[in-house]
Amino acid sequence: MLTVLSIFMSALVLAYVLEPVVERLCAIGVNRRLAAMAAVLLGIGAVAGLAVLLINILQRDIPMIREQAPGWIQKTQIWLAPQLERLEINLNWDTLKSALIDRVSRQFSDNAEIMITRLLDTVMASIQSFIAVVASAVLIFFVMFYILLDWAGLFRRAAGFLPPRLRPTAASLASECDSLLSQYLRGQLTVMLILAAYYAISLSLTGMAGGVGIGILTGLAIFIPYIGFAIGFTLALLSGLLQFGPGSEMMIIAIIYGAGQLLESFFLTPLLVGKQIGLHPVAVVFALMFFGSLFGFFGVLLALPAAAITLVGLRFVRRHIEDSRWFNG
Questions:
Q1: HSE-up of residue 274 (Cα within 13 Å, Cβ side)
Q2: What is this structure's pTM?
Q3: What are phi and psi of 28, to 5 degrees?
Q4: Which residues make Cβ contacts (< 8 Å) with residue 139, sequence separation at least 6?
Q5: CA–CA separation, 163 vs 166, rounded Å?
Q6: Which residues contact 193 (CB under 8 A, 6 or more apart)?
Q7: ∠ CA(17), CA(18), CA(21), 5° rounding?
Q8: Whether the Cβ atoms of residue 57 and residue 239 lie closer than 8 Å to each other
C-alpha cells in the first residue's frame, strides 16, 4: 500500500514541479501532449545527469582509496603506536595492516564499473526486486505524463466530489498552498543554482580534481535539508583527503563549506525563499523522519513541501478555532 502511495505521490509532486514548463511550452504554441512529453524527458534527464555525476565521482575516488590505504595505515601507526605504548597496549601492526589492506582491496575494486557491475549482479539475483524497481520508475513517469496532460481537468473533477458549499473554502486553501509551494520551489531552485556555482568555483580553485562535479552535486543536494549538505561535505573531505592528505587544504575545504552554510542560512534562504514555511528546525527534522518513514527516499525529498501543505491546513484550523464562540467565550 505504501509503495503504491509513494509512486503516485512522487508522480504528483514531480508533475507539480514540471507543470510551469508545460505551460510555457503551450504558451508558445506547442501541443499539450508534446509539451508534457518534453517535461517528462526533462525530468528523466535531470535524474540521469545526477546519477552520471555521482558515478564519475566514484570512478575517480574509489581507485585512490585503494592505492592510498597502505599509506594511511602507515601514518596512523607512526602517530598512534607511541600513544598505545604509554598505555601498555601492543598491537601486531603487520597483521592489522595486512588485514585492512585485504579488506579494502576486496571492498574497493580497481574501478567504479566493476563495483557497479557487482551491485547490478546482486540486484539481478533477486529478479522480483529488480522488476519492482524498474516498474516503479516507469510507473512514476507514466503517471506523471498523464497528470501533466490533464492537469486542470484533474483538479476540476476532484473538486466535483466536494459539496458546493465547501468548494470556495477548498479553492482558497488550494490557492494558498499553490502560492506557498510556488514561492518555495522557485526560491529553493535559485538557492541551489547559486550554491552549486559557489561550491564548484571554490573547490576548483583549491586545485581539487573533480571539484566542479562535487560542488555541483553539493549545491543540488541542498534541496534535502541537513542531509544534502552533510553528503556534499563528506564527499569533498574524502576527495580532498585522497588528493592532498591531511593538511592545510582540508582546512580550506572546511572553511569553504562553513562559509557556504552561512551564506545559505543567513542570506540566500531568507532573501530568496523567505520565512513562508515558518518551520522550526526541530519540526524540519521531524518532517524528514516522518515523511521518510511513510514514502521512503521520495518522502525525504518531499518532506518540506508536504510539511508546508500541512502547515496551511493547521493555520486554517487555527483561524476557525480562534473565530469560534467556544474559543472567545
A1: 12
A2: 0.65
A3: -95, 10
A4: 7, 11
A5: 6
A6: 219
A7: 130
A8: yes
Are 305 and 181 in contact by the 8 Å Cβ rule? The answer is yes
Alpha-carbon distance of 272 to 307, in angstroms, equals 19
What pLDDT shows up at residue 126?
Answer: 58
The three cell numbers of residue 287 are: 518532517
Q: Amino acid letter at 275?
A: K
Distance between CA atoms of residues 80 and 83, nearest Å: 5
Which set of grid coordinates corresponds to residue 6?
509513494
Residue with cell 575494486: 109
Per-residue confidence (pLDDT) for residue 66, from 0 to 100 = 61
Query: Based on C-alpha coordinates, what's the Rg of the chain?
Result: 25
Q: How many degrees, rounded to 5, is the angle at CA 293 between CA 292 and CA 297?
A: 40
CA distance 226 to 322: 35
Residue at grid coordinates 518555495? 184
Which residues of the chain fall short of a pLDDT of 50?
1-2, 110
Nearest to 7, CA basis, from 300, 299, 310? 299
The distance in angstroms from the start CA to the end CA of the chain is: 44
pLDDT of residue 58: 65
Provide CB contacts within 8 A for 307, sequence distance 6+.
Answer: 277, 279, 283, 284, 287, 291
Q: Find out whether 301 and 223 touch, Cβ atoms under 8 Å.
A: yes
Task: Report CA dihedral (28, 34, 37, 41) to the nearest 10 degrees.
Answer: -60
Nearest-angstrom CA–CA distance, 65 and 115: 13
Q: CA–CA distance from 122 to each of 45, 125, 233, 279, 314 (Å)?
A: 26, 5, 29, 41, 45
Cβ within 8 Å of residue 159, ≥6 positions away: 167, 170, 171
Burial of 217 (0-12, 13-18, 19+ CB in 10 A): buried
Please state, in angstroms and rounded to a whole number, the distance separating the CA atoms of residues 214 and 216.
Answer: 6
Helices (H), 150-263: 151-159, 167-205, 211-221, 227-244, 248-263
